[in-house]
Amino acid sequence: MENQKYLDDLRDIRQMMDRSTQFLSLSGLSGVFAGSYALIGAWFANSIIKEQLATSDYYVRYRDIENMLLIKVTAIGLAILGLSLITALICTHLKAKRNNETTWNSSSKRLLVNFLIPLVTGGFFALLLLRHEFFELIAPVTLIFYGLACINASKYTHRDVRYLGLTVVVLGLINTEFTGYGFELWSLGFGVCHIVYGAIMYFKYDRK
């Protein structure tokens, strides 16, 4: 009996330490919304590309068409990112409030910093690829660095985020080999994976 009580005390101490170093108010619903935004944005971008190619004048230079599409697709990507961030902040704030926690604390700061370092690095790398016209590598690079950002941040939140990151990294590596499937793999990584892992996290943690 005494040994069991000792083990229970150790388990309670461990849980208290985990709660003090991890931000556990990350909302699974925000992942579902982010994935939905990504799929809608991907469909919209694909429609724009098809329409642009179908209606462009034969004598319009290929480079001009490419530049127009690039601007439109980039705008869609930025809109998806903005919507996802706003939704994540709202959902996480509501969950933290429900759990009597503060959204902005030392744990959430560590989570954000560790998430942003690989993400911002990947963003600059993608811009350099864009500048040097390595267009086929932009999708895999964004997948890989986003996955690394999730893995790096997972030390400070639910472990499920690590598995999301690993899945997205693998998809990015596959996309590096099969560059012709960038659109499909990008949609799978940022869309479907977010919805699946977001739903898992919602049912595991948010509905308790």
Question: What secondary-structure arrangement, pairings included, does this model have?
Answer:
Blueprint: H1 2-21, H2 28-55, H3 62-98, H4 106-131, H5 138-153, H6 160-177, H7 182-206
Tell me what you see in this structure.
With 208 residues, this protein is mostly helical. The chain has one domain (28-206). The protein is 82% helix and 0% strand. Helix 4 packs antiparallel against helix 5 and helix 5 runs antiparallel to helix 6. The protein is elongated. Residues 16-20 have low confidence and may be disordered. Keywords: Membrane, Transmembrane, Transmembrane helix. The chain crosses the membrane at residues 21-49, 69-90, 111-131, 137-154, 161-179, 185-203.
Shape: elongated
- Helix fraction, binned, reads over 70%
- Tell me the number of strands: 0
Distance between the termini: 30 Å
Mean pLDDT: 83
What pattern of helices and strands is seen along the backbone?
HHHHHHH
Main pleated sheet: none
Oligomer: single chain
- Beta strand %: under 5%
Number of domain modules:
1
The assigned structural class equals mainly alpha
Could you tell me the radius of gyration in angstroms?
Answer: 20 Å
Low-confidence stretches: 16-20
Q: How many helical elements? A: 7
Transmembrane segments: 21-49, 69-90, 111-131, 137-154, 161-179, 185-203
Keywords: Membrane, Transmembrane, Transmembrane helix
